[in-house]
# Entry
Amino acid sequence: MDQNIIIGLLALAFGLVTLVLRFVAPDKLGKLEPMKKMFGPAAGTALHVTAYTVVPLGFGGLMLFKSLAP
# Structure
């Protein structure tokens, strides 16, 4: 298996885990509260969602697409 596929799957898994934890157990997201304190509730949450959910999902999808495309 190509290492880019592994990296893509790991990034997708990380993004999906943070997405699920955000709804099921937000207290398990250790960096969310410090980011809310530093940037404010709305901006901290938006930054956390972007950095720990959106970017890994996009990166993982892109890695898989580039690895599996003909």
About this structure: The helical segments are 3-24, 32-39, 41-68. The CA atoms of residues 30 and 48 lie 11 Å apart.
